[in-house]
């Protein structure tokens, strides 16, 4: 699934940096203990891989292994902005980056074979983190390198 490749891509892309996303505000879900002190941040959530996820993500790949579901949560602090257009621009850039990852090896021993967009949430409010947010889901096919 190449967690390393996904994280590196999100943390180092110059266009995402221009939108306020960089090394200091991209977090795997298990690393986020409290709300970051940045205006925008992304939470990476790797979800289960099942035959149902293969059907759900529309990726009938004919393989016995279903794609892994990756959900990215893009947050913006409410006290700074409730501009969902900015969040959409971040997700649009991520969609473009992921479309370029076919057969891309990561440093963790996995190669991403393909990533497909599986949809986006509506406009959401996170009352605990005091943010507005949207999430985008992706189906990730990968192989051990």
Structure notes:
The protein is of the alpha+beta class and 145 residues long. The relative contact order is 0.23. It starts with a helix and ends with a strand. Strands 1, 2, 3, 4, 5, 6 and 7 form a seven-stranded mixed beta sheet that branches. The model has no long low-confidence stretch (mean pLDDT 88). The chain has four helices and seven strands. The longest helix is centred in the middle third of the chain and has 16 residues.
Shape: globular
N-to-C span: 10 Å
Which structural class do the helices and strands define? alpha+beta
> Which H/E pattern describes the elements?
HHEEHEHEEEE
Which residues form runs of ≥5 with pLDDT under 50?
none
Q: Which whole number gives the mean pLDDT?
A: 88
Biggest sheet features = 7 strands, mixed
Number of helices: 4
How many individual β-strands? Answer: 7
- Secondary structure: helix percent: 25-40%
Classify the beta-strand content into a percent band. Answer: 25-35%
Rg over CA atoms: 15 Å
Question: Which characteristics define this entry?
Answer:
145 residues; 7-stranded mixed β-sheet; alpha+beta; 4 helices; 34% strand; globular
